[in-house]
Structure formats: C-alpha cells, structure tokens
Amino acid sequence: MTSEAYMAATGRYFYIYGRVQGVGFRYQTYHWANQNGIKGFVYNRDDGSVKLAIYGSEQDIQFVDEWLKAGGPPGAKIDHYFSENWHTDPIADFSVRY
What we know:
With 98 residues, the protein is of the alpha+beta class. The protein has one domain (9-96): Alpha-Beta Plaits. Helix content is 30%, strand content 37%. A 5-stranded mixed sheet has the order 4-1-3-2-5. The chain is globular, with a radius of gyration of 13 Å.
C-alpha cells in the first residue's frame, strides 16, 4: 500500500452469527483473505459468533461485506451479521487469532 492508500484506509469489525464455529470458518476466511489481499484478523467469540476485523480501503470492506452476504466460507451458515467502524493502526497481513 502506498502512503496515500494508508491514509485512505479504515477499519471495520464484522460480528457474524449462525453456524460459524466448528466449520473451519476462521481458516477458510484466512485463506480467502490472503488470496484477495485483505488485511486484518478473525477469531471465535465466547458467545458462538465470529469476529472479523478488516483493515483496508472502502472497496476492500465492501468486498468482504459482499462475500459475507453471499454466505462466506463453505460449510458456514450465516444467520446474520453486523459491522461497526474500527479505528486502528495499519495492519500488514491477515491472521487467525485465539
């Protein structure tokens, strides 16, 4: 990313509910994100949901939103999700967190 792209980048949290734990959601999301140049991280939450943190351009965030609307990774069944803005320092890669 250029310095201009970093300045235009933003963060967004996605909270995802449904059958999203125990189906490989985090690891499939990790591979999908790396294939598509998406930065951030994903982890399971104690309430059975998954939290997906994205750092990038509005186009990157829209791309993730469209992927979730289309069902996300194979094996998952997303019942609903919501997102909120997230103020963060730049993130250089995508990771699975525990």
